[in-house]
Amino acid sequence: MGTGPAFVGAGSRFSRVAASASPSPAGVWRQIGSACLAALLGLLLTVPAAWTALPQGNAVTDPSALLRNALPIEQKDLQEIQHRLESTSDDLRAKRWPSLASSVRRTQSVFTLKRNAILASFQSDDRPRAEALFEQLASQFETLVSAADGQERDAFLDARRVALDSIGDAEALLVGPFPFQIPSEYADLPRLLGRASVKLTTTKGDLIAVVDGYNAPLTAGAFVDLVQRGFYDKLPFIRAEDFYVLQTGDPAGPADGFIDPVSKQKRQVPLEIKVPGEAVPFYNQTFEELGLFKAEPTLPFNAKGTLGWAHSDEDLGDGSSQFFLFLFEAELTPAGLNLIDGRYAAFGYVVDGFDVLEELTADDGIVKATVIDGAENLRPHA
What we know:
- This protein is of the alpha+beta class.
- It folds into 2 domains: about 10-60 and about 185-380, Cyclophilin, CATH 2.40.100; about 75-175, Oxygen-evolving enhancer protein 3 (PsbQ), four-helix up-down bundle (Four Helix Bundle (Hemerythrin (Met), subunit A)), CATH 1.20.120.
- The protein contains 12 helices and 12 strands.
- The protein has helices at about 15-20, 25-30, 35-45, 65-70, 75-85, 90-95, 95-120, 125-150, 155-175, 215-230, 285-290, 355-360; strands at about 190, 195-200, 205-210, 235-240, 245-250, 270-275, 280-285, 305-310, 325, 345-350, 365-375, 380.
- An 8-stranded antiparallel β-barrel has the order 2-3-10-8-9-5-4-11.
- The radius of gyration is 21 Å and the shape is globular.
- It starts with 16 loop residues before the first helix and ends with a strand.
């Protein structure tokens, strides 16, 4: 069963967190030992020269925003409205209320001007639902303007969240057929052709996560399949590194992953990472191997509570059942420098239960995992 720091495959191979999580020379990163915050911050201050050209700036850390951005759609006008609303955070934090109110009014004007053109991009069957959402959004803009004018921070945040939910629901209607063909060599593996919501009932309370099969269909599919099998029920967290990771999925007994009851073999899921602009994910290749030193995955490890799939040091494609919850505060890391993007597959985000996430330790575990939405998107094989 799993021992040592988290992030790598199984058994005694659970070791060397940063040795496999970073493109730096292995000899340097093996000195990390535990993944404590102080050590990580020290490492970030001495990143290799090859990393100094990576993009700096504020990473998107809100899981709902990351999920909206990851939808496989092309509706630039609606996405522009979404991004305009999301970008009001800077003015809100700085209490620049006149600028904030002006920004919301401009966004409201863009929505009014482009509303009919955006509606025309929906399929006829989806247009009535889109129209209803846009009616709600028009009213929600009025609430946003009023909250900004009144300098009511909490009211503004609530109204913005509701408005962005309406936009996200409308964007989800624009998703067409599954956007790419999964390689035939993985035909026997389950796949999630869409999204699903999972409730992880832990010993401290419930977490709700959205797993994304649009961008990680095999990883999300393996996870949802195991949830439906009851595989994760009553499993402990095998590692809990403060401020870094919380890992589970190692079954009792000698096996370090899921043993298929038919083949009697351990099911192995390839490393699967999709990059914006690429038609299909990369399989069993890290960003370092691909030379993508400036890339950010479609599903980045930016949000606290990002779900990641574990694999061993020795084999990128031997992940089977173990997954981790990313706990590192992305605000402390420049965009693109969180050590594991491009080395591990993210496949979803915790969207509710962050107070529970804060309390979980290695003494806790999963009581029960349940698919609460999207089960119909799971396919057992190609």
